[in-house]
Amino acid sequence: QPSWKWRFLFGFQWIQAVLLFLSSHAVSGHIRYSIPEEMKKDSLIGHIAQDLGLDLKRLRSGRARIVTGESIQYTELKVDKGTLVVSERIDREQLCGEVASCSFSFEVILENPMELHPVTIEVLDVNDHSPVFKKTHIILEISESANLGARFVLDSAEDPDVGVNGLQNYILTPNENFVLKQHVSPEGSKYAEMVLQKQLDREAAPHLSLRLVALDGGNPQRSGTVNIDIKVLDANDNAPVFNQSVYKTIVTENSAAGTHIVTVNATDADSGTNGHITYSVSNAKSNIAELLSIDPHSGVLSVAGEIDFEKDKKFEIRIDAKDQGGLTDSSKVIIEVVDVNDNPPVINVMSFTSPVSEDSPPGTTVGIINVKDLDSGDNGQVSCKIEGNAPFRIKSNLRNYYTLTTDSVLDRESVLEYNITVIASDSGKPPLSAKRIFNLKVSDVNDNAPVFSQSAYDAFIGENNSPGVSVLALSAEDPDENQNNARVSYILEDSSVNGVPVSSYVSVSADSGVIHAVRSFDYEQIKDFQFIVKAQDGGSPPLSSNVTVKILIQDQNDNPPQVLYPVQTGGSMVAEMVPRSADVGYLVTKVVAVDVDSGQNAWLSYKLQKATDRALFEVGLQNGEIRTIRQVTDKDAVKQRLTVIVEDNGQPSRSATVIVNVAVADSFPEVLSEFTDFPHDKEYNDNLTFYLVLALAVVSFLFIACLVVIISVKIYRWRQSRILYHSSLPVIPYYPPRYSDTLGTGTLPHVYNYEVCRTTDSRKSESKFGGAGSQNMLIMEPSSTGTMQRIQNEKNILDEPDSPLE
Ligand SMILES: *[C@@H]1O[C@H](CO)[C@@H](O)[C@H](O)[C@H]1NC(C)=O
Ligand SMILES: *[C@@H]1O[C@H](CO)[C@@H](O)[C@H](O)[C@H]1NC(C)=O
Ligand SMILES: *[C@@H]1O[C@H](CO)[C@@H](O)[C@H](O)[C@H]1NC(C)=O
Ligand SMILES: *[C@@H]1O[C@H](CO)[C@@H](O)[C@H](O)[C@H]1NC(C)=O
Question: What is the structure's pLDDT at 774?
């Protein structure tokens, strides 16, 4: 606008000047001054008076002044000095804008005569403006994937100065990526653009800060700058990268689900979704996928299932890392499984022998076992031992094989069976163990002889016992087992008692060990005897032990006392003489008696049973002494008869009486006259003798008759057989085995004999009864047992033909 205005004004001024010149004709030459713009007020522009050729008086008189059509008076005329000075700031840019040559004109008018002098002042440009950008920052967002050669037009700067002082050049901060290219627009303004010459990399430099400087050509040069902020936009140009190519780690078996194993880490230089990584397990076998799991975002690999060292000792998996753009990396994870002692040893019995014989030597193998432990290393290192102190040993000869052997001699009688506890334990921490109990039975061997319950037996039996009565029961125990080794048989050892085989005294029941008396004993003949009984078991070979049995026969009061003195004779008369002068206490005689029994049964006492005069004599109770107890008088009869009874102390007691004749006289004739007849005793004795002789005669006759018959029969048979077999054997006369002629004394023998024939097996004993001597009779006591009767029956069946009882 100002330029238009000024042009108009100049036109007007020019017309005015022309008019003035034409009217006055006093127009002098044209003056031009050149001044730079922006001069200070009162700065000298030029010596106008001098330049116009006027002196100062003329100026004054002519009232020189400046006329201008402008409102603003830039210059002032100093009349007194004749100079033209700046009166107002002159801004070329304001005055002329972009017009390159800028000037303004005015006239100096003088009056009297009127003179008109045109003055033109050319305003020269001064570089008083810097190039200016409209904004202080230029913000650009450029993808890092931008192609090379891409152009980015930048805002241009403006400089109102003209010519060289105007905008001349742009300069960009040196950088690798961009170069600056400058252009001139059709309107003539200059602008610049950045051209990409090297790929951007957000990852290396996400931001670029550049400065664009606009320069003018003035002197001094002025410039303006703008900051260019370039934000590099991401492109998915980076793949994830694992920070390790192989991850090695360990995991213990049986770890709980969720246990952290390892964290893999991949980084992606890209940002945003391009850098968002997800992890996954690739290539894993299906079972591994069940055991392990990876967090897709954090890369934490953890336990998901049951990890069993016994199945997998090592895992090798590949892990992929993938960004959202699809770029991937993979890495290997090697996981070693660490064994945990989670498997107890297992005991397998390869062989086991039971029962084992008790005579097995130490070191006998009883069993072989095998132990297994699925764990490895120390956890699978198994050792076996036996619990407690059983006499066994376990040792390993092959790896994991153990033999169980006896360590000492076994004895079934002390320990029947063993429960051998074998413990197998591994060396883990803590160790695991397994237990197995072997029930071993010890089998019997006949290693023990029967043992009697007493080292010796004493048994008492009253005399006159009934044959077959049981005297004593022996018992022997055999600690061995089973039927044979422990079956005890009792055997009477052969020996003789008083020259008679002991078997004729006693028999032993083989099964029960009961000792039976075979005969009736007479204490007066035998008081005791001893023999040996053997207890023998049924083992092979049999074992036996002996015991001594002593049988003590006890006395019974079976014998009456026998009076030895005074001797009782049949006819003759013996009398003790007592003189009439005998004092009181005179020893008349002494009854002497004995009793073959013993003890109390033989303890005799004497009593006066009958007496002619009881007041005259007494008998010593203990000693049998007959003494007077008063003075003998003449009135006392010569013939005194005393009956003394001798009693033993047995239960019941037995007694004997003796008659003692005492003659109270001073001379022998006196005695004779008195002792002439004692008829009754003789008569009694005669009768007795008669009966005895008669009985003996009858018995003897019967016996001889029998003998004759038997011999006749035997001879007859022998002849028959001789005829039959034409034998040339000599004739042997035969007598019954127990035959003996014991006929004798004429007294009845009260001793009887019988004989027991024994076979080696005492259970089949056979009794044979034979009469001894002339008495072919068996005397059975009323207390005779059933056994005896049975034996008698057997005897009848098994009777020998030669028996005298046939
Ligand atoms: C991965 O590694 C980088 C650098 O080593 C680290 O800054 C980042 O935190 C790690 N990431 C994880 C999940 O540990
Ligand atoms: C890789 O990253 C994991 C998880 O952050 C870290 O434990 C491991 O030390 C890193 N490895 C290296 C070599 O930096
Ligand atoms: C051995 O074990 C068995 C069965 O448990 C038991 O009956 C027996 O009494 C035990 N024997 C010993 C000697 O401990
Ligand atoms: C038992 O006694 C018999 C006969 O006296 C003898 O031969 C045998 O050796 C004895 N046996 C023992 C075990 O003492």
Answer: 35
Q: How confident is the model at residue 13 (pLDDT cuts 50, 70, 90)?
A: low
Spell out the domains of the chain, with CATH numbers in brackets.
Answer: 4-124 (2.60.40.60), 129-235 (2.60.40.60), 237-340 (2.60.40.60), 346-443 (2.60.40.60), 451-554 (2.60.40.60), 562-799 (2.60.40.60)
Q: In this predicted model, what pLDDT tens digit does every residue of 177-192 receive, in sequence order?
A: 999 999 998 888 889 9
Q: Output the pTM of the full model.
A: 0.50
The residue whose CA has the least distance to atom 2 of ligand 2 is: 265
Return the ligand number nearest the Cα of 244.
Answer: 2
- Answer whether 742 contacts ligand 3 (Cβ < 6 A): no
Q: Are 118 and 17 in contact, with CB atoms under 8 Å apart?
A: yes
Please, which residues have CB within 8 angstroms of residue 672's CB and are 6 or more apart in sequence? Answer: none
Sign of the dihedral through C-alpha 289, 295, 296, 300: negative
* Of residues 201, 369, 366, 368, the one with CA closest to residue 271: 201
Ligand 2: atom nearest CA of 243 is: 1
* Radius of gyration for the alpha carbons in the chain, expressed in angstroms and rounded: 85
- Pick the atom of ligand 1 nearest to 265's CA: 1
Give the tens place of pLDDT for each residue, 286-304: 778 888 999 999 999 999 9
Say if residue 791's pLDDT is above 50: no
Nearest CA to ligand 1 atom 7: 267
175 lines ligand 2 (CB under 6 A): no
Token pair 């009768």 in the structure block, residue: 687
Is there an atom of ligand 2 within 6 Å of 249 CB? no
Evaluate: CB of 243 within 6 angstroms of ligand 2.
yes
Evaluate: CB of 265 within 6 angstroms of ligand 1: yes
For ligand 1, atom 12, name the residue with the nearest CA. 265
387 lines ligand 3 (CB under 6 A): no
Structure confidence by residue, pLDDT tens digits, 537-567: 998 889 999 999 999 998 888 889 998 888 8
Which atom of ligand 1 is least distant from the CA of 266?
1
Q: Find out whether the beta carbon of 298 lies less than 6 Å from any atom of ligand 3.
A: no
pLDDT of residue 674: 65
| Token pair 């800028």 in the structure block, residue | 102
CB 132 within 8 A of CB 224: yes
Atom of ligand 4 nearest to the CA of 534: 1
Q: Quick check: 48 and 85 in contact, CB under 8 A?
A: no
| CB 424 within 8 Å of CB 386 | no
- DSSP structure string for 362-414: TT-EEEEEEEE-SS-GGGG-EEEEESTT-SEEEEEEETTEEEEEE-S---TTT
